[in-house]
Amino acid sequence: MDARLNYFADPTADKVLKHFMSAGKALKASPLPTATQELVALRVSQINGCAVCIDMHTKEAAAAGETSVRLHLVAAWREATVFTEAERAALELAEEGTRVADAAGGVSDEVWANAAKHYDQEQLAALVILVSFMNTANRLNIINQQPAGNYQPGQFH
């Protein structure tokens, strides 16, 4: 299977995506814990059905030391006992932020308050931007039918 477009061969897409990738690098450098970043990126990608992002973030998380048990349980995090309360708060915010149409009100005050108990303002800002960033990345890849399975950890760093 081939992607519909080669974004980097198109002058406009190439310019935009270079800026987009720079935003991703800035997020990686944020004070939001790496494990939380990868878990959130994975969960958003699972919800949206973005195979290439699921491939990328499972491999990046594993390369950063994440366990296979936790990676396998991200889809069922509510029932799993392997996530910290802070990670659970981030995953819940990510889900509500991704399912804005389904949530009919976006992120609830209760979910926001729970996340704010675990993360400072800079981390919360990074979390919100990460959820938005991943939703954008997922849509770029899904619309383009970007194939999955060949990602190598660190490929875009």
TrEMBL record:
InterPro entries: AhpD-like, AhpD_core, CMD-like. Pfam families: CMD (PF02627). Residues 16-96 form the Carboxymuconolactone decarboxylase-like domain. This is Carboxymuconolactone decarboxylase family protein. It comes from Streptomyces flavidovirens.
